[in-house]
Amino acid sequence: MISKSICVYCGSRPGVNPAYTTAAEALGRAIADEGWRLVYGAGDVGLMGTVARAAQDAGGDTFGVIPTHLMDLEVGKTDLTRFIITETMHERKKVMVMNADAIVVLPGGAGSLDEFFEVLTWRQLGLHGKPIVLLSVDNYWAPLTALLDHVVDQGFADRSLLGFVETTTSAPATITALRRALS
């Protein structure tokens, strides 16, 4: 029986820094080692594929959600424990969040930012109370956290917004933060 499910948002590309791939592997393994289920975008490319393969290799339960139009582009990983195909991106994001107890954001691009801001906005609006963790490998998310501070400083969000996001720098620190938030 799976005790918790962790939604991981991350790049469909590996990025230029090998540390991103190393962190994705470590996070996938650590999620499985905790007995938690990985919920992610069901791709077999970039950091998405890396985190999923690492979780699978460690014996973990995997739950992937992919929209029809990305099956070829993101190489839908059909050997997951559970593989769901949706019609739209909106449906994909909704299914992922609804099936997770917490969200972790590894390095990624516009899609990862879209997913992050959607769950952050939903949290701000009281639509969920799930922990959100930015895994800032080699300070990848430092500009994003500075932007969030700027948004608050400029009066476009209450300071409470910053409390909805925790930033970590490694897979072990992320697991520690998740254990604390989910206990």
Compute the separation of the termini in Å: 17 Å
Number of alpha- plus pi-helical segments: 6
* Radius of gyration from the alpha-carbon trace, in angstroms: 15 Å
Class by helix and strand content? alpha/beta
Q: Write down the secondary-structure element order.
A: EHEHEEHEHEHEH
Largest sheet: 7 strands, parallel
Strand content: 15-25%
How much is the average pLDDT?
Answer: 96
Report the uncertain regions: none
Question: Could you characterize the architecture of this molecule?
Answer:
By secondary structure, the protein is of the alpha/beta class. Helices cover 42% and strands 18% of the residues. The protein is built from 6 helices and 7 strands; from the N terminus they run E-H-E-H-E-E-H-E-H-E-H-E-H. The chain has helices spanning 18-33, 46-57, 89-98, 110-124, 142-153, 171-182, and strands at residues 5-9, 37-40, 61-67, 82-86, 102-105, 132-135, 165-168. Helix 1 (18-33) links the parallel strand 1 and strand 2 (37-40). The longest helix is centred in the first third of the chain and has 16 residues, at 18-33. The chain is globular, with a radius of gyration of 15 Å.
Gist?
The chain has 183 residues and is α/β, with parallel strands linked by helices. The chain has six helices and seven strands; from the N terminus they run E-H-E-H-E-E-H-E-H-E-H-E-H.
